[in-house]
Amino acid sequence: MRTPESGATRLERRLAVVTVGAPALGFVVAVAIAAQQGIGGLELGLLLGMYLPTAFGIEAGFHRYFSHRAFRAGPATTCLLAVLGSMAAQGPVLFWASTHRRHHAFTDREGDPHSPCLHGDGWRGQMRGLWHAHVGWLFAHERRDWMQFVPDLLRDPLVFRLNQHYFLWIALGLAIPAAIGGLIAGSWQGAAGGFLWGGLVRIFLLDQATWGVNSLAHRFGTRLHATRDNSRNLALLAFLSVGGSWHNNHHACPALARTDHRFWQIDLAGGFIELLALLGLAWDVKRAPPRGAKQQVTIE
After folding, report:
1. Which of 23, 131, 142, 221 could crosslink 204 through cysteines, CB 3.0-4.6 Å?
2. Residue bearing the bigger pLDDT, 148 or 235
3. Among the listed ranges 13-17, 166-170, 190-194, which one has the minimum average pLDDT value?
4. Using CA atoms, how far apart are residues 97 and 162, in angstroms rounded to an integer?
5. Does 289 score more than 80 pLDDT?
6. Given this model, what pLDDT does residue 11 score?
């Protein structure tokens, strides 16, 4: 007998298939075409031009602003960050923030939605854990009350409305590079290239960067802070994740707007937040004390 819970689970699984499968298929098609015909500056420009804004939407917006309230912003900036983050097609803002807050509440323990550390110690268990943390958790059967972790966002009518139009923002994120590609190239072929490289390929690559923090940055890398979880700093993903892969730093001080705890750690999202503050579009930015000052690390 079909129940509302089982029906909702099937719908979520179907959405997960589309969310994961469509960008992956687009990536394969784009690479196959590039192998035969090459890739031009227009396609690469649209890929980079769409990747950075949507990566900032995820890391500076969905992660540090909506999930952790690391700074404050007005309606215009809230809309910008929500739309850019939604264009990444990683889930609506309420789902993304509630999932991440649950991750912090139960990091690497039972209840963590995407820990790689709960599937056994042997190599098979570790591989199962990495798969689950990277993408498998999106297809999990377990039902959770996601919304209990975001009561503040649910009470915000602007955020709630932006969340309701999630699929519109995804469509916009695909239409913009397609339109730019078509206009610059003056052909449908240019529009198709923009759709592939600025749309599906961009989503696929940003997915791997974000999900790579969930999986790889809880297994590999360095530990600057002695947190109670297995979070690690993974320099290899620093640029693709625009600073999100300084994951041990983040778990040590989750409320901060920056993740660069050493001068050589590049945090592009932190720089973007500082730019917003400079322009008066963000304020009450939570920063670490000056270097050399007595600091208190919050262990999560």
Report:
1. 23
2. 235
3. 13-17
4. 13
5. no
6. 76
Cβ atoms of 47 and 201 closer than 8 Å = yes
* Assigned token pair, 179: 């339109």
For the record, the structure tokens of 212 come out as 């790579």
Short-list 33, 64, 109, CA closest to 243: 64
Average pLDDT over residues 229-236: 95
- Asked if 243 and 260 count as a contact pair (C-beta separation under 8 A), the reply is yes
Amino acid at 131: W
- In the numeric block, which tokens belong to residue 253? 């001080």
Residue 294: the pLDDT is: 41
Q: Which residue has the tokens 């912090």?
A: 104
Contact indicator for 126, 219 with CB cutoff of 8 Å: yes
Q: What value does the CA radius of gyration of the chain take, rounded to a whole number of Å?
A: 19
Question: What pLDDT, on the 0 to 100 scale, is given for residue 139?
Answer: 86
Residue 209 banded pLDDT, cuts 50, 70, 90: very high
pTM here?
0.92
Phi (first) and psi of residue 8, to 5 degrees:
-65, -40
SS (H, E, C) the chain: CCCHHHHHHHHHHHHHHHHHHHHHHHHHHHHHHHHHHCCCHHHHHHHHHHHHHHHHHHHHHHHHHHHCCCCEECHHHHHHHHHHHHHCCCCCHHHHHHHHHHHHHCCCCCCCCCCCCCCCCCHHHHHHHHHHHHCHHHHCCCCCCHHHHCHHHHCCHHHHHHHHCHHHHHHHHHHHHHHHHHHHHCCHHHHHHHHHHHHHHHHHHHHHHHHHHHHHHHCCCECCCCCCCCCCECHHHCCCCCCCCEHHHHHHCCCCCCCCCCCCCCCHHHHHHHHHHHCCCEECCCCCCCCCCCCCCCCC
